[in-house]
Amino acid sequence: MSLFKFEMSAEYLSRIENEFPILWEFFPIFEIKTAADRFKLFLSQKGAPEETQNLLVKSLYQRLGLVFPTYADEIEKWLSYGQFPPPIPEFFIREWYQELLREHSEARWPEYGSKRLHSWMTSQKNPVISINPDAEYRYSVAWLPVFAAAVASGNTSFEAVFDRKPGAVFFLRQVRDFDSRWFKAIFQCSLLRYFAQK
To answer: What InterPro entries does UniProt report for this protein, alphabetically (predicted)?
Structure first.
């Protein structure tokens, strides 16, 4: 609820992420929707018309997406209207993966949690995205957005793969930030697919 009371201030959101061991992509997204509903109830008790409530919450979702791009675009539309975009064909996901490989062919890929993510991915009966890296050092970058979406959608817990050890969030941020376009695209696609399954 504090996110809404502080009007999704970029300074407030960034401060929370910097001062606490949190990655917003792992935060349960239904908690954000529940907080928005409570905020709308608060506004209605103060006499705000429903249209004003909806416009204000929509603008706050937009601010959230500006600070954390993984919550922009299609996720923002889902939060605001409950709309699902047309499904993204697997062909595009494979193309995005090939682009990721081309762009980072000479880079050292962060490997934090790669074996645990591999175990988790191979245990999925019907994975929402089928990406099969050909090298172990690519597992973390390829699969962290899928796992983060599973956590955010309530389909698994953070502890299913990672311990809450000091420093874990630092290393996970390195994986997330290795290629933020890849992470955002796969996180959003996975999250929307998890929602569509519910």
So the answer is: YjiT
User: Taking the CB of residue 46, how many other CB atoms lie within 10 A of it?
Assistant: 8
More confident position, 65 or 15: 65
- The 10s digit of each residue's pLDDT in 84-111 is 888 888 999 999 999 999 999 999 999 9
pTM reported for the whole predicted model: 0.89
């064909």: which residue's tokens? Answer: 89
Taking CA atoms, 57 is separated from 20, 24, 41, 99, 100, in Å, by: 25, 18, 11, 36, 35
- The band of 162, judged by pLDDT with boundaries at 50, 70 and 90, is very high
Of 135, 110, 144, 131, whose CA–CA distance to 25 is shortest? 144
Average pLDDT, the chain: 90
- CA distances for 73 relative to 13, 68, 188, 195, angstroms: 18, 11, 9, 16
Q: What is the 3-state secondary structure (H, E, C) of 66-104?
A: HHCHHHCHHHHHHHHHCCCCCCCCHHHHHHHHHHHHHHC
| pLDDT greater than 80 at residue 9 | no
